[in-house]
Amino acid sequence: MLMERILSRENLLTALKRVEQNKGSHGIDGMSVKSLRRHLYENWDSHREALRTGDYEPSPVRRVEIPKPSGGVRLLGIPTVIDRFIQQAIAQVLTPIFDPTFSDNSYGFRPSRSAHDAVRKAKRYIKEGFRWVVDMDLEKFFDKVNHDKLMGILAKRIEDRILLKLIRKYLQSGVMFNGVIQSTEEGTPQGGPLSPLLSNIILDKLDKELEARGHKFVRYADDCNIYVKSRKAGERVMESITAFIEQKLKLKVNRDKLAVDRPWKRRFFGFSFTINKEPKVRIEQQSMKRFKMKIREITSRSKPLPMEVRIERLNRYLIGWCGYFALADTPSKFKELDKWIRRRLRMCKWKQWKNPRTRVRKLIGLGVPDYKAHEWGNSRKKYCRIACSPILHKTLENTYWSQRGLKNLYDRYEFLRQS
Questions:
Q1: How many CB atoms lie within 10 A of CB 27?
Q2: pTM, entire model
């Protein structure tokens, strides 16, 4: 019985460690992840008995709204930590059963697969001559999954009736929003550990259909890109696959995002591609805008932060950002960003020095001749102009910032590309 494997000591300990590592917010009961271990120590016997007999009742999820970068909000359902723990234990047992049967073109929420792998596959298709893309996105996918259809798919592979009953209870546990509990007749709450696996199980039908038709495609969760050789072929594929998704899977395609276009004109997980015959991965424009907005926020001159605090915050953001975007085949862009970041910091430093007397003294301390220090220290040029001046370029240069701990994006990019 699968339920016994789920409730095994080894599986539960792994699930507990995973939930504690992921941290996350509390559910409707207010219990934090830090309190989970003690709660299980005191109450697990009753929880386990209820799970074995099929009497366990999941709590409704807490509904929160997360703003999207492109506008609007993404609805997340945050289960209680005890339900996250149980869902994680279920997912650990079901993943080895279902995952090996999934399509090789599916990359979302799967072991040893990532968005980077999806981008590399897309790049390969473009290189092979499939230079048009059908860009599809399912509208509110996690909120629209048909429960009966999903449970029918699960019942073909799972014989444990108690487990199937528990999964249906999770699907129908409801959501609490502004203190009001609402029932859920469709959808899988986006935010629980079980939700990604359930989404891949139902969308595997789409993958198998695309494979049967011989299409070149990449799917990551509810985003699917199909690569074809002409606009006409793309429009034909778009029409037929949209009909399949809406009629057979009972899901809805987002018409606002649906398009047949050139890959280099579309956004794909923060990346895009160059127009070259040998395509290169590049950082998409919107991703670059968001990066610069964040750097401007950290290096804002209106925030009187000590320089070491700014550099610490910058490093924390830059390391994570570069870890993801180092996939791009554009090293020159990282060099440009390094120069721009140092210029932003020079503006902060110039404002930090404030009055002309301090600026003259600091410049002399950095080895600037007296007459030059007085000339620039008393300058009325604006911050941006001063930051680009030869005097600050020579004094507050690369070595100055590296000695103060600033991470170099290009160096990290080169390190990640070689490792």
A1: 24
A2: 0.86
